[in-house]
Write a structure and sequence with these properties.
2 helices; 6-stranded antiparallel β-sheet; globular; 2% helix; Methylamine Dehydrogenase, Chain H; 4-stranded antiparallel β-sheet; mainly beta; single chain
Amino acid sequence: MVNPYLEGNFAPVLEERSDDHDLEVTGVVPPDLEGRLLRNGPNPVATPADPADYHWFTGDGMIHAIGLAGGRATGYRNRWVRTRQLSTKVATVPPKGPSEPVDGPANTHVIRHAGTTLALVESGFPHALSPDLDRARVHDFDGALSSPMTAHPKLDPDTGELVFFGVDLFGPPFLRYHVVDAMGHLTVTEDIATPRATMIHDFAVTATRVVFLDQPVAFDLALAAQGWSMPFRWTPDDGSRVGVLPRDGRGADIRWVSMDPSYVFHVVNAFDDGDRTVLDVVRYDSVFDTAPGEALTHSNPSLHRWTIDPAANRVLEERLDDVPVEFPRIDPAVAGRPYRYAYAVRQGDDPDRPGFEGLVKYDLARDEAVRFDPGPGRMPGEPVFVRAADGAAEDEGWVLSVVFDAARGASDLVILDATSFAGPPVATVHLPARVPFGFHGSWIPSDS
């Protein structure tokens, strides 16, 4: 069996590079971009024992860092995240800190909060990274966290709180809700009662509520015992539901509302609408709908709006676009609030042949979409929005995306002006290496 996640630009790179200073740039790097783009993704340090069983979600984490300052591209470096799992495969110094319930690959996201850079994966604890990315420490918020943390925490732009959840596959409880304050102290942990362990990859946070997605992708202990890398099954007969909880509520305060079976890996954003809650999501009709040992397939994802109406005890579903997209991002300043713009990767139309064709900017107020075409043989990754230093409007800023250039066999950092999204990039930073397709990243300002 040919595994598409081990070929082309999904294939891992085998070299860690130190900073390559003063990278070649076409165009002009905006001078207010002072910091680093950090991007995380799976990069197996060794060939999987069974390539047919390897899935993109399970590779060892690798951070790619691209520095920008003074209108220049100041360097690129990449490092595997020094997890305990990695140290069992190659000669690396394992991370300091407490033991994890499950030694995870820390391969999904990278954020900065309360002065600490964290590599995240939903199966384990965060890993705090040194500035040079050469060292890591398992981070459990001074012993307050005892179970896994999601890779998709939400930062409240007003309070500075980091709101997150964790799924414990070996519970109960299978689901917990947490809040970390702006200083980095874990202040809230609430158990949420659910009947089984399901794959909950993301959730939604508004100014006053959190919304959990309990969807029919069930953890299968028997498959895990047999050694399957992704021991999950599509179980539509279990149904789907969303749970709404006040941000200051207790676990028992959650209210569940049933809906038709579907799956969401990523929530675009959410906001309060009176008593109702609005979520924009990237929705799949089904995922993991195959037998053990077969390729994991899924339907094409598309942008939907869910409006949770507690008075009617229902979720109104509205399809906003039929173009297959993933990896949605927004301006962090409007997280959890009413908003207008979103950015996403345009996927290929064949769900069995993973690939990325361009970027999309959605104007949700005008019901419009604008596409950026990176050109032949060029495939983008997640778009990260950075508000311009003097930006007043929600889209006054820059969209950063790592783009693979097949002709060069290497990658570029493409910087777009979000207000003229379809136009040519304002700058293209030519990286000295290939950056494999990955998951999520963050812009880390120099003064953070």
